[in-house]
Amino acid sequence: MAIEFTKYHGLGNDFILIDNRSSSKPVLTPDQAIQLCDRHFGIGADGVIFALPGEHGTDYTMRIFNSDGSEPEMCGNGIRCLAAFLADLEGGAKKSDQYRIHTLGGVMTPQLMPGGQVKVDMGIPGLLASEIPTTMNPANEKVINQPLEVAGKTWDVTCVSTGNPHCITFVEDVATIPLEVIGPQFEHHPAFPQRINTEFIQVVRPDYVKMRVWERGAGMTLACGTGACASLVAGVLTLRCERKATVELPGGPLEIEWSEIDQRLYMTGPAERVFTGKID
Questions:
Q1: Catalytic-labelled residue, pool 37, 167, 224, 229
Q2: Which of 24, 166, 178, 255 could cysteine-pair with 230, CB 3.0–4.6 Å?
Q3: Given the residues 75, 81, 167, 229, the one annotated as active site
Q4: DSSP character at residue 95
Q5: 224 included as an active-site residue
């Protein structure tokens, strides 16, 4: 049976989107997702996203398999792509409306904006060690500017959950970080029982930072929306950033705000359709 798909990307973080609304389970297995994500022998992507029927009163459910077959709780760039995909499936009828999307990381609310931008209410960040999760501190304590030994060096890290786990460290120059070497060692560090996404942040100004990311299950990617949100939170907690800032990723900028009024995170960035096709 042929399955139709559409390829989207958010700042170069690319995904295969599949209309899965007729079933509550993904139509592909994690192993099949690995094959499709292969950039030489498949379609090529950082992950496969399935648009499933909504749960618990939501409009739709999002499931995602990473390029290594693992399943993250959420994906910031991916949910923007999903919102654009859903609007295309609905013929553009909801382009000015919000969607309530059920994810393993909670309910997220993306809204399509003018100019191909999507604004997402990412919810309230988790700051306790149990919410990351990490064994760096007792379950009911935060992890802010704490030392972590990785790759023979001590890094001061701050941990934040934005639906999935993040470990953020601030550096003088992100371009000098050997991400391919250090990233996997952070991801698989024993302090993070469910592995970790890792962001390296260079603060240019309190309202403008540069970021490089090693994503759990996907490796080095051009952008990570949940990571950009987590990094802003870490910047505020360590008194480095304002509550609203531009986060510059290798694939382009995201606008992130951690609202002082409702304590919720808001992410705004693009989602672009690349092409459509069918797979057997």
A1: 224
A2: 166
A3: 75
A4: T
A5: yes
Q: What is the three-class DSSP state of 156?
A: strand
Domain boundaries, the chain: 3-119+270-279, 129-263
In whole angstroms, what is the distance from residue 99 CA to residue 105 CA?
16
* CATH class of the domain whose range is 129-263: alpha beta
Q: Give percent of the chain above pLDDT 70.
A: 98
Q: What is the mean pLDDT of residues 240-268?
A: 98
> Tokens representing 254?
């995201």
| Cα 210 to Cα 133: distance, rounded to the nearest angstrom | 25
Query: Which class for 188: exposed (0-12), middle (13-18), buried (19 or more C-beta within 10 A)?
Result: exposed
Closest to 248 in 3D by CA, of 82, 11, 8, 45: 11
**pLDDT at 197 > cutoff 60:** yes
Domains 3-119+270-279 and 129-263 share a fold: yes
pLDDT tens digit sequence for 114-168: 899 999 999 999 999 999 999 999 999 999 999 999 999 999 999 999 999 999 9
pLDDT in tens, 77-97: 999 999 999 999 988 655 547
| 229 counts as catalytic | no
Residues 104-134, buried b or exposed e (16+ Cβ, 10 A)? ebbbbbbbbeeeeebbbbbbebbbbbebbbb
CATH topology of domain 3-119+270-279: Diaminopimelate Epimerase; Chain A, domain 1 (3.10.310)
For residues 145 and 141, give the distance between their C-alpha atoms in angstroms, rounded to a whole number: 13
Average of per-residue pLDDT values in the chain: 96
CA dihedral sign, ordered 216, 253, 5, 36 = negative
